[in-house]
UniProtKB/TrEMBL annotation:
Keyword field: Repeat
One Gene Ontology MF term: actin filament binding
InterPro entries found in the cross-reference section: Filamin, Filamin/ABP280_repeat-like, Filamin/ABP280_rpt, Ig-like_fold, Ig_E-set
One Pfam family hit: Filamin
Filamin repeats: 1-51, 51-143
PROSITE patterns (UniProt xref): FILAMIN_REPEAT
Protein name: Filamin
Protein transport as UniProt keyword: no
Source taxon at top rank: Eukaryota
GO-annotated biological processes: actin cytoskeleton organization
């Protein structure tokens, strides 16, 4: 957590070779989620994310596109403008490649933002309302160049090879 304290999420077995991780934050600010398998971080771990309290009149942003993604695949996040209106909202994505940005007004006080990067690396996402950065902005998103497999864990395999006769241990 932001204070340096450690908290544990709830891990549920989905019984389909996947797990769900649920976390109820107790502090605002930047948090890190370490995901390990057999004591080793899975690719992309630890994941950094910003926790904010959402109340009417404040602009906030949340979603996976603010923290991670895959090159060539769309990244999505949501901006909540409840109680403020969307006028004066601006955003920028800076990084190793140009990002194509599109947005959709959901007509419920939120805006869905989608951006696409063509190169891996760290991208800086700046969200501003009026002339001020919103809380947590700029956000930093790690973009990998691997597909869905980046978050899957490979346990490994074994291959046996029969060698021709006449080979000794010394050989």
């Amino acid at each position: 957590m932001t204070s340096g304290k450690i908290d544990k999420p709830l891990i549920e077995d989905n019984r389909d070779d996947t797990v769900s991780i649920k976390y109820d934050p107790k502090e605002e600010g930047v948090h890190e989620l370490a995901v390990k398998y057999n004591g080793e971080h899975v690719q992309g771990s630890p994941y950094r994310f910003h926790v904010d309290s959402i109340s009417s009149g404040y602009v906030t942003a949340h979603g996976p596109g603010l923290t991670h993604g895959v090159s060539g695949e769309p990244c999505v996040f949501t901006i909540s403008t409840k109680g403020t209106g969307a006028d004066g909202l601006s955003l920028a994505v800076e990084g190793p490649s140009k990002a194509d940005i599109s947005y959709h007004d959901n007509k419920d006080g939120t805006v869905t933002v989608t951006y696409l990067r063509t190169a891996p690396g760290e991208y800086k996402i700046s969200v501003r309302f009026g002339d001020k950065s919103i809380k947590g902005s700029p956000f930093f998103s790690k973009i990998t160049d691997e597909g869905r497999k980046r978050n899957q864990i490979s346990v490994g395999s074994c291959s046996e090879v029969t060698l021709p006769g006449g080979i000794t241990d010394a050989d």
